[in-house]
Hints:
Blueprint: E1 20-27, E2 38-39, E3 46-51, E4 56-59, E5 70-77, E6 87-91, E7 95-102, E8 113-114, E9 118-121, E10 153-154, E11 157-165, E12 175-185, E13 188-192, E14 199-201, E15 208-214, E16 220-221, E17 238-240, E18 260-267, E19 274-279, E20 288-296, E21 300-308, E22 316-320
Parallel strand pairs: 11-20
Antiparallel strand pairs: 1-2, 1-3, 1-5, 3-4, 5-8, 5-9, 6-7, 7-13, 8-10, 11-17, 12-15, 12-16, 12-18, 13-14, 18-19, 20-21, 21-22
Amino acid sequence: MTKAVTNKAMGSAYDTNESFAVYAAYSEGLFDASGSYSNFWTQPTEQCNYNSSYNAWAPSTTYYWPRAGYLTFQAYSPAGASSDMTKLSHSWSNGFTFTGFTVPAAYSQYDLLYTERVENCQRSNYTVTRDNGYDDDPNYPTFIYNGINLAFKHALSLVEVQAASALGSNATIKFYVQKIVLKNAYNKGTFTQNNADPWNVDTSEDLVDYPVLDKGSDWQVLPGAEESPASINPALTLMVMPQTLHRSAGTTLNTSTDAYLEVTYKEGSAGTPTTIPVPLPDPWVTGKKYTYRLLFSNHIEFTAQITDWEDEIRGYHRIVI
């Protein structure tokens, strides 16, 4: 079983409940992917778990730095992600290939991550001497952290749906939402790290739907648009496979082939329930977050904001139905 933190985007701080798998290469000289090197671990990878004593992650087996030579590292997360793909492979030239990865169902998803190579690490740079370490933390009372920094990248896309009333929170007319479904997504494909477009989506598989909100027989009243934006369902973080969303000819939404949001809402507590399709701007891109904001008035206004999961990139798309 994976030790992944399900239903949660990792963000900029790696979760201490999480574990990752690391490859390590030993070379006598500076690392060259086409040159001479060997596997440093006694097995292909080592699982690294959080160690509270060091406030860092350590391999399951204790390894000591070689007296000479260089170590190069590369990692993926979570350590158990291989159970959700038909094959996981790694080469020092091209990085990771996740063959036949299937995005788990909503509420069971996790943040699939990978790193670039961290090259040419030497024992002399990581010898722990208080107040004189490579990347140490003198504020830590007992031990000084003196380890390898891994910068993980997100392999999937993150989707958040927000909804609000354009009439404001003090309006006598209220809008209610009962159900929102993300329709027609592919959930299986192969990730190749070295490719400019890393995902090759398997379009031979059936399209799947992801619940965003389902109140059953109840209804959720929408806040005013002047209030701070909030997810329509904070309990659900939706991570999806990067892909093309508009797959039909022309610009008109085809609900049989294109990805879209299906929204069930009503105006007023005694209003008539209405279900509508809401198109999505194309596409989902690796490592980006998509915030879809539904604004209800006499019509629905739909905006989409595209951001990195850390540093923000501003993009804007507006659809009026």
